[in-house]
Target: Threonine synthase
Amino acid sequence: MTTTVSAPSAITTSPARGLVCRACGAEYPLAAQHACYECFGPLEVAYDEAALARVTRAEIEAGPQNIWRYAALLPAGQDPATRVTLDPGLTPLVSAPLLAAELGITGALWIKDDSQNPTHSFKDRVVSVALTAAKELGFTRFSCASTGNLANSVAAHAARAGVPSIVFIPADLEQGKVVTTAVYGGELVAIEGSYDDVNRLCSELVETDEFEDTAFVNVNVRPFYAEGSKTLGYEVAEQLGWRIPAQVVIPMASGELLTKVDKAFSELVEIGLVEAPEDGWTVFGAQSAGCNPIAVALHNDTDVITPVKPTGIAKSLNIGDPAAGPYAIEAVRRTGGWMDYADDAEIRAGIRLLAETTGIFAETAGGTTIAVLKKLVESGKLDPAKETVVYNTGEGLKTLDAVAGEVGPTHRIKPSLRGAREAGLLG
Ligand SMILES: *Cc1c(COP(=O)(O)O)cnc(C)c1O
Ligand SMILES: [Zn+2]
Model:
């Protein structure tokens, strides 16, 4: 079985030189292909090192206030006219001293708050890059298999570009993610099954004649999609004054985001835009207890991921058969990091702790990451004296139910001073 779509064209003007198999190293042209014909391994974008090495800090700093300031390090979108984008990126890097104190962290602690993107998750970055590549490759309809946030982003990007979309979601998705997708128009297909069922169906649809014109951002143009995540590494380094932090904590669904932040740091060092920190950097991964196949494989000291049937409230992370899992494990092992997972109660507590100490309301994925940060400090895996950046990848308003039962008004009073006094507000 081959998994290619015969797209009308290939991308020609790009620092990327082709696609390369992550498993066997076979090389292919830059086209809509995501699996190796030799070994079925996943493909990733490979760059012309000389082209990357020409990129300067000054050029980047003079660029737009969004991910496209890094266009010269991305596989598509060199020409602004071809971009399919809501211009995500340059989200705040927020200092979190109160959270640090609460957790016993003495080094600098930062939250990279990617809930501040146009559709309120980091997925706008990957979708902008994937759909820009899709347009350059000649696709005329946009699609995805989504755990929620991707659906929001693809539907919104398609609406802005005036391109039809058809997105696929599990039928049990949070209402906050269904409405925030459907509102953009386009077709929205709810599938009676898990995300992994949705993904499998999309892999089958992409092979049909009826979907030949359709770019599935995380299926047939996945190598381009994955590259968008690198901007979360570049941005943190630039925002720290062109420095790489000692430690990063990253939520994992497929595990791709984690591998690409690590790749971004490596690229920045290789092309001379930043100096590597003296002891390198260390990458930590966060999953939920309801869907922890990558963390469990690491704990069991294996590279073999045993797929699970996901449960629990962190639905945006619920990929039971994570494609980039082995590569995430490799990055964490190589950098001396660790992975852990948090149960639903810990995730809720993580959402509330982040909100109460930083003013940032995260979705369940963010709660997962904060809960795992706490565990990593307690277990001594994360060095509390070193600088740490924690990625908040999504917005709490989309998963209100996670904490709706736990918080509410602290008082209810009559509209009078007497009412206020009776409630103890006047002493
Ligand atoms: C998709 C998603 C992730 C994880 O992405 P992967 O690259 O698949 O690991 C993390 N957080 C949120 C909020 C997401 O929507
Ligand atoms: Zn291969």
